[in-house]
Amino acid sequence: MPPLIDREKCTGCGTCAEICNSNLFVFDRSVDKFPRIKFPEECWHCDSCVLDCPVGAISLRIPLSYGLMHVDASTLTTKEAKS
C-alpha cells in the first residue's frame, strides 16, 4: 500500500521524492503542487518519507501481513514436548 500525502499539510518541498529509495514519488515543481505517487506497488514501507517530511504530511498504511505480531520461535513448543 502506498504512502498517503495529506494535502492540507504538504508544503510541496519535495523531500519525500528526494529521500525515497524506491523512486516512488514524482515531483516536478513546474507542473505539480504536490508530489504524486507513481509506483505505489513498489513501496517498501521503510518509513523514510514519513520520518523526513518536515511537516508530517505523510503516513503509511501498513499491510496486515506486515503488522502481524512477532513471536519468538524459541518460545514455541511441539505437542511432543508438552507430554
Provide tags for this entry.
83 residues, alpha+beta, two-stranded antiparallel sheet, two-stranded antiparallel ribbon, 22% helix, 10% strand, elongated
Range of helix content: 10-25%
Largest sheet: 2 strands, antiparallel
H and E order? EHEEHEHH
Q: pLDDT average, as an integer?
A: 84
Gross morphology is elongated
Q: Structural class, from secondary structure content?
A: alpha+beta
Rg = 19 Å
Q: Outline the low-pLDDT stretches.
A: none
Count, helices: 4
Structural notes for this entry:
The chain has 83 residues and is of the alpha+beta class. Helices cover 22% and strands 10% of the residues. The strands form two sheets. Strands 1-4 form a two-stranded antiparallel sheet. The longest helix has 5 residues, at 15-19. The protein is elongated. The N and C termini lie far apart (44 Å).
Offer a concise description of the structure:
The protein is α+β, with helices and mostly antiparallel strands and 83 residues long. Helices cover 22% and strands 10% of the residues.
Topology:
Layout lengths: L3 E2 L9 H5 L5 E2 L9 E2 L10 H5 L5 E2 L4 H4 L11 H4 L1
Antiparallel strand pairs: 1-4, 2-3
